[in-house]
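Case study 2.
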Amino acid sequence: MTRIAPTLQAFFTDRLIAQRQVSPHTVAAYRDTFRLLFVYLTDTTGKTPVDIDFDDLDAATITAFLGHLEVGRGVKATTRNARLAALRSLFRYASYRHPEHAELIARVLDIPAKRTGRPLVTFLAAEEIDALLAAPDLTTWTGRRDHTLMVLAVQTGLRVSELAAIRLRHLHLGRGPHVRVNGKGRKERVTPLTAHTVTAVAAWLHERGGDPDDALFPTSAGTPLGRDAIRKLVVKHSRTAAATCPSLTTKQIGVHTLRHSAAMNLLTNGVDLATIALWLGHEQLRTVQHYLHADLDLKERALARTAPPNTAPGRYRPSDPILAFLESL
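Prediction:
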């Protein structure tokens, strides 16, 4: 039997950090996966993590652990698949170091990912965006900060990690205003800013002050806002905005909703998918094709073009109130 602890340590220090140079977010996600796994194994086998060997990590045990995540912790299939991807990465690395466990490793690598559905993306209409941006209390420092952050997010479509990482030196508000970010996969990109966003950001910078390496959006203590803090403030203001815009109560709103809203705004204004993919920092065009499925207006226009000859375009709308009632059922 071979203890897995040395292999796990080498996997993080040698493979992930030294060789692949993965982002800190990836390291943290993998770390959380193995922490959950070892806590589960300790509870089920009684062994301490340092004493766990490869024979304790056969395919049946890994499958049971994934089931525990779904049933015991209530995670979705997408999260379950992400945990499985981290485990596969470790076992692929272990296959080179421990050929004596090749059969066990092969069975673990054969564990299939669960198929998941892909719901329509949630995005905000123009009036919902206006209500959300009006929700922060602009008489307070935190309210002005939150307002500026959401104005920037809904126009640029930046990810929450990108918003949290912005420093003052990443902004250029002169000619050709833009913000420069290092996105997913270490891809650096530049996103232009509209005049409205420049006005909001410039006002915040005048109040915020600071050095070039300071975070654009700090806490009241001066430390950078973290991803969880940004998520919570968006949720908080969406609940406040729902009082004046009831349609917001039907949507689950987060930072990614603002990202989707930015993409849908580009799409409805005639921007092609290739440009939207570049704007959002995606490598592949198919990644943004789901915005086409969410665009009902685009489908309505396609429906209008399929109307028979000599008929007015549009859907059938019964004039009689009884027929309208029956049609709505």
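The chain has a mean pLDDT of 87.
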